Amino acid sequence: MRPDLLNHAPILIILLFLGGAMVAVLAGLLQRRLAQPWAVGITGSATLLSLFGLARVLQEGALRYQLGGWRAPIGIELIYDPLSAFLVVVICAVSLLVLIHGRRIVPEEIPGREVPFFAVALMLIGGLCGIVLTGDLFNLYVFIEIVSLSSYALLGIGTKRSPLSAFRYLVMGTTAGSFYLLGLALIFMRTGTLNMTDLAEILPFVSGQVPVLVGLAFILVGLSLKAAIFPLHGWLPDAYTDGCSTATALIAPLGTKTALYAILRFVFFVLAPAYGAGAAPIGTIVAYAGAAAIVWGSFMAMSQKELKRMLAYSSVAQVGYIALGIGLGSRYGLIGAVLHILNHACMKACLFLVTGNLRRNVGHSYLPNLDASVRREMPWSMAAFCVAAISMIGLPPTAGFFSKWYLALGTVEAGQWPLLVALLVSTLLNGVYFFRIFEQVYLKPAREGASGREARGEAPLSMLVPTLIFAVLLLILGIGNVYIVTTFLEPIWAGVL
Amino acid sequence: MIDFFAEHYSHVCIVVLIGVGFFGMVGKRNLVKKLIGMSVLQSAIILFWLVAAFKEDATIPIVKDGVSPIVPEEYVNPLPHALMLTAIVVAVVTSGVAIALLVKIYRNYGTLEEDQILEQL
Question: Across the interface, do A170 and B34 touch by the CB < 8 Å criterion?
Fold first, then answer.
């Protein structure tokens, strides 16, 4: 790949998706079947580009890209450092696999609407990359709203209930966006800048002023609402349950994570010089909200009967893990948080893809009706489910164990015992609700002729392969975690901690 | 007291608007009224930015003759206006998506009253 092309990698990735979304609509007008291959092609090339970009960033250091040649802080700046480069790779790769999986299931679940679906999906992924890459707080608002608006649209198609859930999500999401904008106004009035690096330098001079503090509070509440940090998670379970399978599999692993990333970037790269690393009171609040989310989300997940809803509640808990790591603010906590963003993206995507396979070939994902016949018909899907579920519980050698291990180390290091207890309790609760499914699928005898429908066997290859890739990835990420931490995650904190 | 209102009437109005917006979103059971409340809230925040940019006796930010030195007090800060143009676009798109969803909800349930929809669930 030509090196001068890589100089423009950050903006090219975003433009690929946004432009690709426009062309997807045109390609879809020509031939409806073209939409999905086009979306996969765009995401594939963006994945390649982001991989090369990451290699270059690790070799030559961070790249600050000035949009249109206007120098920051006047112009908008994209920050392509190890942290954002790493997360862009995660976003592109996970969505690539989910989009491949969508080839069969999207036309079946929402017939006739696959063209707009894939166009909006590309817009969503572009927005996610934008959130991760931007170095400007107003630009961040714009990308957050792009992501939110595409999420409302994607989750609004599906069952009879989904428009209602999507509307509630929209009301909450818009409140969050308005809070963010209000807080930003207060900060802008006091500092006169929107650039993150510039703001980090100015904030120490105004850090004690009331408008600044109120503005920061508004911004953090707005971002927490987008990230569904407990107790601001109310919109999440309904929205995720009623969306179509591919939409949920795309938004659940990535959507809330990028909002968490925005919190991380804001707390550690903007607030740190003025208020100290981890911004003490904010960190404690975020960490304990995370712990509450872990316990509450796990308890709620246990009592669900619908697999998709159970996974949605478990998302609330998993967001809690990442929030806990960010709140700890120590090296171990942050390694655990970023590693968990990666691991959870793979686990949740895998679990939601299996749910999609179940819905297509078994016709439902209602937990009490799952029995051994499911395992006999779909052995590979269920094997992938088991790997992902074991990873969610956090048993070695799967990926989930290692991110929880780093988080636990962080709590011990900080002497925050209540947080450690929350981590351990949630592992047991995760065990309870996933082993319940294992028991049913592997041990509960099949009821003969109860379902009254023909067996459709294993999911087609286009759906099975992405699911299995995620399952294998979870094992690879688990075994190779030392390599990931030393190569990708250590450089992130070089300048921060 | 009166001095306070005379001096800060624009901010008082914005706070009232934000309150009205929130009341609409939280207190009303009709989904369209929730949407109206949401729009009022968004408009209030856009106004807040614009009020922050306002200066007494200042003009549009175009340099007058290019010879005399530039005095920042003579020009209105143009950045908030440019930013709010984007925020207005976001607000319009949000309303568009919300109205599309409301049309779908009405087709599915035949009503936009939240209580009646909850009964049907």
Answer: no
pLDDT at A121: 92
CB-count burial class (<10 Å; 0-12, 13-18, 19+) for A381? buried
Task: Kindly provide the b/e burial profile for residues B67-95, where b requires at least 16 CB atoms within 10 angstroms of the residue's own CB.
Answer: eeeeeeeebebebbeebbeebeebbeebb
Contact A138 B83 (CB under 8 A): yes
Query: A1: pLDDT confidence band, cut at 50, 70 and 90?
Result: low
Q: How far apart are CA A342 and CA A114, in angstroms?
A: 28
Residue A9: pLDDT above 80?
yes
User: What is the interface pTM, i.e. ipTM, of the complex?
Assistant: 0.92
**Mean pLDDT value across residues A101-129:** 87
Q: Considering CB atoms only, which of A142, A178, A189 is closest to B45?
A: A178
pTM here is 0.92
Collect all residues with Cβ–Cβ distance below 8 Å to A348 and sequence separation of at least 6. A249, A252, A253, A311, A315, A318
Cis preceding linkage at A253, omega within 30 = no
B101 to A156: CB separation less than 8 angstroms, yes or no: yes
CB distance B90–A142 less than 8 Å?
Answer: yes
Closest CA to A193 of A273, A270, A83, A277: A270
Answer whether A149 sits within 8 Å of B97, measured CB to CB.
yes
Shortest Cα–Cα distance, B62 to chain A (Å): 17
Q: Can you give the CATH number for the domain in which B92 is found?
A: 1.10.287.3510
Q: pLDDT tens-digit profile of A255-312?
A: 888 999 998 888 888 887 777 655 567 788 888 888 888 888 888 888 888 888 888 8
Q: Which amino acid is at A299?
A: F
A446 touches B at CB < 8 Å: no
Q: What residue numbers bound the domain in which B80 lies?
A: 2-63+70-120
Considering only the beta carbons, identify the residue of B31, B49, B108 that sits closest to A185.
B49
In the predicted structure, residue A141 carries a pLDDT above the cut 90: yes
Residues 16-45 of B with CB under 8 A from A: 25, 31, 34, 38, 41-42, 45
Looking at beta carbons, which residues of chain A come within 8 Å of B98?
A: 152, 167, 170
